[in-house]
Amino acid sequence: MNNNFASRFEPLFNRAYTRDDFFYFVPREERDYNKEWAKRLVEDRIIYYRWREDTERGGWKRFEAQAARITAHGGLILEICAGPGAGFAPAVLMKDYNARICLSDLCPTVLREWKKLFDGMDNRPPHVEYTALDVCDLPFADNSLDVVSGSAAVINIEGDRDRALREIYRVLKPGGLFAFDLIFVTKEYAHTLPPEALKIIKARFPAAFWDTLAVFDGLGFSHTETIRTGEWSNKDDESTLADLCRSLGVSLTFSALMNYCVK
Ligand SMILES: C[S@@+](CC[C@H](N)C(=O)[O-])C[C@H]1O[C@@H](n2cnc3c(N)ncnc32)[C@H](O)[C@@H]1O
Predict the structure, then answer these.
(1) Cα(195) to centroid of ligand 1, in Å?
(2) Does residue 147 carry a pLDDT above 70?
């Protein structure tokens, strides 16, 4: 473990934890329903290939603007729902290899794979830590972090998403930054769909229609900036949602929004 950097996070924890290869606030064992995915993550070396794509082939540049904002803010960064791509973290590291980032996820295998990758590098990023946690119950003291960031994170939170958002607000320092992106079907686009098809899709996939802004009204951020970063259609996508849409003779256009919220 990179003891120097770990010691920056340790005083911020607000409860007991297990410290092994890194910090655990959830069981070391993978949850039953996640075991198969976790196994594939390791066997197919998904994280290794994602990192290579991002760094050697320049994939990180899709997040260049976001990384510039996050590194300009600086300080202690918590990347939530890091997953196989680690969200904005690779781009942030490409901008500033000295960035101080704690990768976090509910899935310990994700973090073990990231740690294995970085530990095996000759020039590993010097200030990266790993914490297995539930973003709905963040184990940090109030007002302790400078940045919370997450890409494709908020939409994928398992559990009570509103609670997670309140937790993120709580742990940020005053002036701290919450940077996250979201893809969802806007109300304007939804209203162009045949009403019966819309009703069926919405009943099965409510999160696809989740409108961030309403939830944020009550959190207390002093400043929120939302930037539309593009549109994407699920016409040719391979997913159960896309299959359902095709069976109903429609496709969905998603708007991608980047949000910067300052506490
Ligand atoms: C599809 S990934 C998100 C994409 C990811 N940021 C990336 O760049 O690849 C979703 C991740 O969120 C994690 N996750 C879901 N619910 C969570 C929670 N309540 N707390 C922490 N992590 C969570 C999952 O374990 C998974 O690794």
Answers:
(1) 32
(2) yes
